[in-house]
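Quick log. Single chain, no ligands specified.
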Amino acid sequence: MKWLDKLKEDFSSNCAVSVKQYGPDVLRDQSSFKARFDEEYRGADDFEKVSLLRKKNERQNEVEIIFNLIMS
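-> predicted structure:
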C-alpha cells in the first residue's frame, strides 16, 4: 500500500482544483456517494433534480481528470 500513501501525498501537494476538492475521496468506495445521491434524487422536485444531476456530472468530470493524473 506504499503506492496509495504516495498517491495521497501527491494529492495534497497538487494545486489543481479538482484534486483539492475530490482527490482522496475518489480513492474510497463510491457506494455511499451513490446511495446518498439516489436518496436525494428520489425526494427532489424537478428543479432540484437538475441541480443534483449537474453536481453528479461535475463530480464525474473531476474524477476523470484525477484518473488521468493518476495514470500519468
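Residues 29-72 form one domain.
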